[in-house]
Specification:
The protein is mostly helical and 171 residues long. The protein has helices spanning 5-24, 29-55, 81-105, 107-122, 127-148, 160-169; strands spanning 67-69, 72-74. It folds into 2 domains: 1-56; 105-171, no CATH class. Helix content is 70%, strand content 4%. Helix 1 (5-24) packs antiparallel against helix 2, helix 3 packs antiparallel against helix 4 and helix 4 (107-122) packs antiparallel against helix 5. The radius of gyration is 20 Å and the shape is flat. The mean pLDDT is 83.
Length: 171
C-alpha cells in the first residue's frame, strides 16, 4: 500500500462528498435529488481513485527530462512552474469566490454575476458581451431548474436579493 500526498487529497475530497451527501439527505426530495446524484456518483469515482492511489504500483519515471508542475509531470518547457502555480491559484480563487457568492446571496444571483465578472475580468470580454452570456445562463438556469424542475432555492446569508429576483419572475 502506497500513501502519497495525492491520496491525502483524495481522502479530503471523499470526506467533503460524504458530508454533502449526509447534509442533503434531509432536504425535500426535489432539493436533494441533484446534490445526491452528484455527490454519490462522485463518491463512487473517488473511492475508485483512492483504490488506485493506494494499490497501484508507482509508474517508472520517463526517460526524457520531466519536471513537476503542481502535482502533474510536465514535459512542456514553455510554461515556467511559478506561472503554472499562479494560474492554478487564480482558478482556485475564482472557484472559492463563486462558492462564497452562492453562500452569501444565493444561487440565482451568483451564477449570472460570476459569469459576467469572469468574462470581464478573466476573459477580457466587452461588458455587453459578458452581459448577454450572463443573461443566457440566467435564462437557462431559471427555465430548467425553476420552471421545469421546480427546484426550491435555498436562501443565501443575505436572502433579499434572491427573494427579490424570485418575486420579479413570479415565484
Amino acid at each position: 500500500m502506497i500513501f502519497k500526498a495525492e491520496t491525502a487529497f483524495t481522502l479530503v475530497i471523499l470526506l467533503i462528498l460524504v458530508w454533502a451527501s449526509v447534509t442533503a439527505w434531509d432536504w425535500p426530495f426535489q432539493a436533494r435529488l441533484f446534490p445526491l446524484a452528484i455527490s454519490i456518483s462522485s463518491l463512487a469515482l473517488g473511492l475508485l481513485g483512492l483504490g488506485l492511489d493506494l494499490f497501484m504500483a508507482p509508474k517508472q519515471p520517463a526517460a526524457k527530462e520531466e519536471r513537476q508542475i503542481i502535482d502533474m509531470p510536465s514535459w512542456e518547457q514553455s510554461v515556467p512552474p511559478h506561472l503554472a502555480r499562479r494560474r492554478v491559484g487564480n482558478i482556485f480563487g475564482w472557484m472559492l469566490g463563486f462558492y462564497f457568492s452562492i453562500w452569501f446571496v444565493g444561487f440565482i444571483i451568483s451564477v449570472p454575476l460570476f459569469i459576467w465578472l469572469y468574462l470581464i475580468v478573466q476573459g477580457r470580454e466587452r461588458w455587453w458581451t459578458s452581459l448577454i452570456y450572463a443573461a443566457l445562463a440566467q435564462t437557462f438556469l431559471l427555465g430548467l431548474f425553476h420552471y421545469i424542475l421546480h427546484i426550491p432555492w435555498s436562501d443565501g446569508f443575505i436572502a433579499w436579493p434572491q427573494e427579490a429576483m424570485l418575486e420579479l419572475i413570479g415565484r
